[in-house]
Every structure is written in structure tokens, then in C-alpha cells.
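Retry 2 of 3 after timeout on previous attempt. Resubmitting C-alpha cells to design endpoint.
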């Protein structure tokens, strides 16, 4: 039986699992799940499986091996081969001697029960299963047409130091606080022959978390992401674990069409057969049942920053929009996404006192509180500004009030990292002021909000670092504001952004940059007017209706 998780999300050892198994992360996969994965891979007995190589990186007590043995047995019968022709058709690894012995015994008995001679069955079983660490095998040992299984889910920092160092040396994708299953993906993918396929059931956190970035990069550049079947609520294992599992099918070929699918608690053996029939159909259309939703995509999402999370139907729409429309940040329209100024000492650099220093050293600032209503309601905050219009620090000798104020707070200012690095520039803010930004019309976005919240500054204020901004050389900012107020734009952010407690979204630059928009010149005059009017009235429904027309959509799936 295959392995999955060492700890649950609270980092407690799993109940009712032997200590030795917990140490190596054993939780066992149900047979119907194994059957589904092998079917999705196309590892079926109508093929001459004795001529193909399947690898199982962490076989445990043999959940995958038992099914593989049965399929190879049927394949040998169908192709008139002795079972010994398949002596090199499987390569399975496990760290524990008792698992190796148990898996060999299971395979031997399975083959014997299916009519093969005991000594041949024993020979095959002994050849198939090896005690060893899959991640530390020489590359020459890793050559596969298929890699299948349920790799261990163990935080890298929970592995002994010497083994952790060896893993990091062997697997370049295992950076930071990775789980070791990332390494299993990497080694398995590297081992695939051209056209080879990987099928894992494993935690899907790597698709979005920072520690999975290098693995996403590897997949994007060299492989085809064929299927992501999310199974978070499915009873896929013999023990209850909080592991956020998904079945992923990845091929060693250029990226082609892909499928995004999600399941409910109702997804079981019979529903898995229905999903398989849908998946294998030539004319797949989006489908939604009480047990699963699925949608075909023209290809998987490019890039490695993060892969989106949404319902399959919504992912299909987002992928379609990504195919047909340009990114929001675009040189041809001069549209740019940025963040307001970070000072390193807001209590010193931000003031409400309009008489504090010389007037030309006070720069009116937009703060989050100024945007709450949906239009700018400036509360009178200023940046005590040490930068001139050329982007250079001013000479304090020319500004006696500014000089006295900064020297009054020099103890705080000089302790900052930016000042320690450049002690002669101790009164600088972390970021420079770009004075051109103040007078430009710009859309402002609070960092954290339940819904997307663009607010127009006509060109009077400089944004604080808790605000993100959008400027453009071409867009009418009210029209763009209407598009970005819509649920279509919000869907992009929601799919990529980190959700905080209570459903709050982070509207950071990297997520805003994921939004796709049409060419401004392609928007019909009546739609431009409708978007601008909806923005002025903060009418999300009207903005969404106009945006759907502009994007050529009839609806936005949930």
C-alpha cells in the first residue's frame, strides 16, 4: 500500500498507525483510487505491459503493486507471454524491510492466485521490489514509461539533517520549507522516457505555494500537465488524513490540452468510472454532477508563479480569456501596476501636520482609509518628502525645518537597515518618490479587501505602500475602472491570490497583473459608456454585465 502523509495539518502523528510507519509517512490508498489512476494513465492490460517499465517510488505494503501485478498478469495471458517476461516491467522502492517483504509476498500471492507457477511468481516479485531510497538512486536507475504512486508527504525539516542535505543535493526543486513529495515529483519526471506519464495522488499545495515554484517551473518548461483532479473531500485513503490530495497526470511531451476537475464527498468507485468514461471521450464538454465537475482546457496555465485555483468551469473560462486577451500590464498601452511608497518609518515620514516642515517638502498621500467609500476622501496625510523632482535626496542645509525635524528623529531613522547600509543617506525613504506619479490619473487598490475595489485618483495624491496602483498611457481610467470593478476581473485575482481568514483577498501587484483585458480601442462606445457609468456609481452588477459583453461571455461560472 502506498504512502502519503506523515503528519496532519496540526503536525500531530496520525492515530492508529505504527510508529515505524509514521516515521516514514505511511497512509494507504484505496484500491478503486489506484485503479482510476492506472486507467487515467492508460496502463491497461490490453497493452503488452511486459515491454513497458512502470516505477513505484514508495510502495509501502503494495496498494499499487497488487493492481499492477493483476494487470501485468492479464496482459501476459492476452499476449501469450510467460509471466517471467515481465521480470523487469516493474521497479518499486521502499525504505522499510518489512514493506519490501510484504510487497513481495503480496505480488507473489497475487500472481500465484492468477495461475502462475509459484517459483516464477516469486522470481518476478523479488525482482520488482527493492529496498532503497528512491530519491537517492543514481539517475541511471531511473528510466520509466510510467511512474505511479502516492509519495510520502513529510516536511523536509522533519527529516534527519543528513538525509535532508542529501535530498536537497539530489533534488533542485526542494527549496525552502518544501515537503519531500516535491522531490518525488522531480525525480519521477526526470526519469520519464519521451511520451512517458506520471500519475500521483498527492497533496496539491505545490501548485500554489512558494515551495512548489521550482517544480511548477520544471513542469511548465519540459512537460505537459494533462489532468488535475482535486479530491480534497474524497474518502481516498484507508485512514483519515488532512492532506488536500489531488490526482495529477503529467506527460513528457509538449503541453497539449488539459483537464481541470474537482470532486465532492459523493465521489467514489462508481463515480470514478463515470469520470473515466468522460475523460476518455473524444468530444469532452464541461460536465457537472453531484460527484464531480470537469472541464477541458486548451492547455495548462503558463508560468510558475502560481497556478490558479477555482472550479473547473471557471478555470476553463479564465484559460479562454488568457488565450484571447492581453495582460493588464502591457507596454503597448503603457499600462503599469505598482505599489505605493515604503518609508521604513511611517511614524516619522507620514504626518497630518500641514505646517510641520517647508511646504514643498510635504507631498499629499493617499492612504487606505481615503479609499473606503469607493471615491477619494482625502484625510490630510502628507509624506515628509526627502526627494527632489530629479529623484535625488535634497540637501538638508537648504531646508532648515526639514533638517531639524529629521535630526529630531535621527535615532529612529539611523537604525533602519536602509540607513545602516548607507549612513550618509540616513534620512532617505526605502523607496524613491517618482514625482510624475502624483499628477497622473491612477486607479488605487487597497491591499486587503473582501472584493475588488478600484478607486480613481484624478492626479492629486501619492500612494502609500498599502495601496497598489495602475496607470496607463491609453486607457480611459473610468472605463478601465469599470472593467476592474467587475466580477470578471475579480475572478482572476480570486483564482491566484492568497485568501486570508474570513475570505479577505490580497490585491497585490502579482495578482492584479494576472488580469486579462481587451484592447481599449476594441470596446464599443456603448460598452465604454456603460463601464464608466458603472464605475462612477460603484455598480458591480452593471460593471459585470458590461464586462461580460466586452469579453464575449454569456456568464461567469461559479
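Retry 2 succeeded. Sequence:
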Amino acid at each position: 500500500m502506498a504512502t502519503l502523509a506523515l503528519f496532519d495539518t496540526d503536525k500531530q502523528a496520525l492515530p492508529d498507525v505504527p510508529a515505524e510507519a509514521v516515521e516514514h509517512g505511511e497512509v494507504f490508498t484505496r484500491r478503486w483510487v489506484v485503479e482510476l489512476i492506472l486507467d487515467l494513465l492508460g496502463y491497461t492490460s490490453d497493452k503488452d505491459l511486459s515491454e513497458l517499465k512502470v516505477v513505484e517510488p514508495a510502495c509501502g505494503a503494495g496498494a499499487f503493486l497488487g493492481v499492477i501485478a493483476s494487470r501485468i498478469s492479464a496482459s501476459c495471458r492476452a499476449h501469450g507471454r510467460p509471466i517471467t517476461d515481465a521480470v523487469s516491467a516493474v521497479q518499486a522502492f521502499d525504505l522499510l524491510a518489512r514493506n519490501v517483504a510484504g510487497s513481495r509476498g503480496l505480488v507473489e500471492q497475487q500472481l500465484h492466485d492468477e495461475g502462475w507457477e509459484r517459483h516464477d511468481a516469486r522470481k518476478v516479485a523479488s525482482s520488482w521490489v527493492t529496498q532503497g531510497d528512491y530519491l537517492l538512486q543514481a539517475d541511471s536507475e531511473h528510466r520509466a514509461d510510467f511512474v505511479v504512486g502516492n509519495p510520502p508527504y513529510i516536511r523536509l525539516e522533519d527529516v534527519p539533517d543528513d538525509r535532508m542535505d542529501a535530498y536537497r543535493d539530489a533534488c533542485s526543486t526542494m527549496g525552502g520549507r518544501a515537503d519531500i513529495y516535491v522531490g518525488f515529483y522531480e525525480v519521477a519526471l526526470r526519469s520519464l522516457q519521451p511520451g512517458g506519464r506520471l500519475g500521483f495522488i498527492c497533496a496539491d499545495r505545490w501548485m500554489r505555494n512558494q515551495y512548489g515554484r521550482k517544480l511548477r517551473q520544471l513542469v511548465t518548461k519540459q512537460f505537459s500537465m494533462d489532468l488535475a483532479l482535486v479530491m480534497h473531500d474524497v474518502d481516498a485513503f484507508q485512514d483519515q488524513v488532512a492532506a488536500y490530495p489531488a490526482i495529477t497526470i503529467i506527460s513528457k511531451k509538449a503541453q497539449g490540452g488539459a483537464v481541470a476537475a474537482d470532486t465532492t464527498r459523493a465521489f467514489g468507485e462508481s463515480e470514478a468510472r463515470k469520470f473515466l468514461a468522460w475523460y476518455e471521450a473524444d468530444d469532452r464538454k464541461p460536465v457537472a454532477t453531484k460527484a464531480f465537475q470537469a472541464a477541458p482546457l486548451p492547455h495548462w496555465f503558463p508560468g510558475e508563479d502560481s497556478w490558479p485555483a477555482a472550479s473547473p468551469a471557471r478555470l476553463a473560462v479564465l484559460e479562454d480569456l488568457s488565450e484571447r486577451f492581453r495582460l493588464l500590464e502591457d507596454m503597448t498601452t503603457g499600462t503599469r501596476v505598482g505599489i505605493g511608497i515604503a518609508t521604513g518609518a511611517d511614524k516619522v515620514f507620514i504626518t497630518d501636520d500641514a505646517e510641520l516642515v517647508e511646504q514643498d517638502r510635504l507631498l499629499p498621500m493617499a492612504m487606505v482609509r481615503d479609499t473606503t467609500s469607493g471615491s477619494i476622501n482625502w484625510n490630510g496625510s502628507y509624506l515628509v518628502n526627502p526627494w527632489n523632482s530629479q529623484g535625488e535626496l535634497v540637501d538638508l542645509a537648504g531646508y532648515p525645518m526639514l533638517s531639524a525635524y529629521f535630526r529630531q528623529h535621527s535615532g529612529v531613522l539611523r537604525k533602519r537597515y536602509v540607513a545602516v547600509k548607507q549612513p550618509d543617506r540616513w534620512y532617505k525613504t526605502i523607496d524613491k518618490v517618482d514625482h510624475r506619479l502624483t499628477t497622473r490619473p491612477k486607479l488605487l487598490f487597497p491591499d486587503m479587501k473582501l472584493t475588488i475595489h478600484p478607486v480613481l485618483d484624478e492626479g492629486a495624491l501619492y500612494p502609500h505602500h498599502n495601496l497598489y496602483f495602475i496607470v496607463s498611457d491609453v486607457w480611459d481610467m473610468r472605463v478601465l475602472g469599470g472593467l476592474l470593478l467587475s466580477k470578471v476581473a475579480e475572478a482572476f485575482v480570486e483564482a491566484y491570490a492568497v485568501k486570508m481568514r474570513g475570505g479577505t483577498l490580497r490585491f497585490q501587484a502579482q495578482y492584479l497583473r494576472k488580469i486579462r483585458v481587451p484592447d481599449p480601442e476594441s470596446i464599443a462606445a456603448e460598452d465604454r459608456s456603460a463601464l464608466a457609468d458603472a464605475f462612477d456609481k460603484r455598480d458591480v452588477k452593471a460593471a459585470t454585465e458590461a464586462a461580460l459583453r466586452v469579453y464575449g461571455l454569456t456568464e461567469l461560472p461559479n
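Attempt log closed. Residues 336-551 form one domain.
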